[in-house]
Amino acid sequence: MSTELQTLNIEGMSLSEAMGMSPSTGGSQSTLARIKQIHSAITVEDSEGDEKIVVPIGAYQVTMPDGEVVYSKTLTMRLFSQRMQWQRWDAGANTMHKTLLSGNLNVDLKDTSGRHNCGRPSGYIKDFKALPEETKSVIRDVKRTKVMLGMVKLDKPIDELGNVVKGHDEEIPFVMDSRNTESNKAIDSALSQIMAKKLTPVEHTLNLGSAKRDMNSGGKYAVIVPSLGIKVPYQPEDSHTLKSFLDWITNTNTWVESKHDEIVNSSMSSEDAELVGSIVEVKEFEG
């Protein structure tokens, strides 16, 4: 591990802590490319009227900050930071509610719906079957989400018609949400292998491929299949890049806090809101 990365300390955190990792474990408009894995193939009609797959299940969709969408069957990334988050889709409001980004999910986290944990009960659930059906439904709907931030290089990017897209030869900053348990365990295992080499993921690439899995309904979905890439020499700009990702996390959490407080305060009487505000001020003063 480079001396610079070993000694890097930002806002009281070591590099591993800033990345949401420990050495023993193996909002607003974003300026980051957003990556997601697709679970339905994209097809086009050929000259004979037959459907032809141009983007297969498991490929990665990359939405650039300017709105351009490209696809890549595989990716090469360096992970700079990761956090955990609860997410729940609200069909009525046509929005995804999210909690604060955190190093773990063992604490109650404010969310954008004005609640905590997107409505999921906190603490260990001893007997799931004994819970009311409404509570069971909420637990099923709330997704444990790994949020990854880093630098990524697209391997042979194409558009939705299968045409080669040029101009994406360099690493770009990205954010990616992963809700699949198998995918997240595979990523954690790969990161542990890197840490076992006494390196951080900043200093080693990960190659992301995919595999198909069968659903009970007969359909298919994809999971992330990571493999170790190559060691990458430390670059001075990596410290600045990490600081930028930490700023993004801070800004995102500030936005979640504001949405939470906006909803909570709108449901209070003016007297209650004033009382809560005075309590907060006293606590901040005493601290």
Write structural notes for this entry.
With 287 residues, the chain is of the alpha+beta class. The chain has one domain. 28% of the residues lie in helices and 31% in strands. The chain has helices at 3-7, 15-18, 133-141, 181-196, 237-266, 270-286, and strands at 9-10, 13-14, 33-37, 42-45, 51-55, 60-63, 69-72, 74-90, 95-98, 143-155, 172-178, 204-214, 220-231. Strands 3, 6, 7, 8, 9, 10, 11, 12 and 13 form a nine-stranded mixed β-sheet that branches. A two-stranded antiparallel sheet has the order 1-2. A two-stranded antiparallel ribbon has the order 4-5. Strand 12 and strand 13 (220-231) form a beta hairpin. Mean pLDDT is 86; it is low at 23-28 and 279-287.
Entry keywords:
287 residues, alpha+beta, nine-stranded mixed sheet, two-stranded antiparallel sheet, 6 helices, globular
Strand content: 25-35%
Number of strands: 13
Spatial shape: globular
The number of helical elements comes to 6
Largest sheet: 9 strands, mixed
